């Protein structure tokens, strides 16, 4: 990490310590109406706990190209205190997996949750073992509503010592 990046990271930690609100990058699939509606509802519930949310589906860069989408998502990841990642599905979304890896690489805590009740074939973890062991905190939310997922995530945030 460069001196500039270190200073930016320190400032991000100091701001969180005084504000007590988490700037969240909400990672998850967003390719169906149902996925986008889930994301909107979860973002709203997290905002009710006074957290700030970067919801990638809400940002449509102009022109709307894959490169500009990638750059906009990086902007959100740079901005956040933490990544919250949806691990639903037989195998978590590949873009979400990348965003989790980015979070871990850039020292952002990654909070993963799963509402999907289907068992996966991996007997060592509730989802892909490489992802499972790279997240900061896994919050089990099987069949939980967006409000319940937000409540459990908020509890996990308060248990985590951001910058302390």
Write a brief structural summary.
By secondary structure, the chain is α/β, with parallel strands linked by helices.
Instruction: Calculate the terminal CA-CA distance, rounded to whole Å.
Output: 19 Å
**Main beta sheet:** 5 strands, parallel
CATH topology: Rossmann fold
Average pLDDT score: 89
Helix-strand sequence: HEHEHEHEHEH
CATH class: Alpha Beta
Main structural class: alpha/beta
Portion of residues in beta strands equals: 5-15%
User: DSSP helix count?
Assistant: 6
Instruction: Please state the second-level CATH architecture.
Output: 3-Layer(aba) Sandwich
Helical percentage = 40-55%
Residue runs with pLDDT of under 50 for 5 or more positions = none
Radius of gyration: 15 Å
Task: Kindly state the number of beta strands.
Answer: 5
Q: Structurally, how many domains make up the residues?
A: 1
| Neighbour order of strands in the largest sheet | 2-1-3-4-5
Oligomerization: single chain
Task: Compile the SSE list and pairings.
Layout: H1 3-19, E1 23-27, H2 33-48, E2 52-54, H3 66-79, E3 82-86, H4 94-105, E4 110-114, H5 129-132, E5 137-140, H6 146-159
Helix pairs in contact: 2-6
Describe this structure as you would to a colleague.
α2 (33-48) crosses α6. 47% of the residues lie in helices and 13% in strands. The protein is built from 6 helices and 5 strands; from the N terminus they run αβαβαβαβαβα. A 5-stranded parallel sheet has the order 2-1-3-4-5, sandwiched between helices. The chain has a single domain (3-159), classed as Rossmann fold (3-Layer(aba) Sandwich). The chain has 164 residues and is α/β, with parallel strands linked by helices. The chain has helices at 3-19, 33-48, 66-79, 94-105, 129-132, 146-159; strands at residues 23-27, 52-54, 82-86, 110-114, 137-140. The two termini are 19 Å apart.
């Amino acid at each position: 990490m460069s001196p500039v990046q270190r200073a930016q990271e320190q400032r991000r930690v100091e701001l969180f310590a005084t504000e007590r609100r988490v700037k969240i990058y909400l990672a998850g699939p967003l390719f169906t109406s149902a996925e986008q509606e889930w994301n909107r509802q979860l973002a709203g519930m997290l905002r009710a706990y006074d957290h700030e949310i970067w919801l990638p589906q809400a940002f449509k860069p102009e022109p709307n190209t894959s490169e500009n989408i990638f750059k906009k998502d990086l902007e959100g990841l740079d901005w956040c205190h933490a990544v919250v990642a949806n691990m639903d599905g037989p195998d978590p979304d590949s873009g979400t997996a990348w965003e989790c890896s980015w979070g871990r690489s850039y020292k952002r805590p990654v909070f993963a949750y799963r509402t999907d009740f289907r068992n996966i074939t991996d007997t060592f973890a509730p989802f892909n073992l490489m992802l499972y062991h790279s997240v900061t905190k896994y919050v089990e939310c099987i069949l939980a509503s967006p409000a319940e997922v937000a409540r459990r995530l908020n509890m996990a945030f308060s248990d985590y010592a951001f910058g302390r």
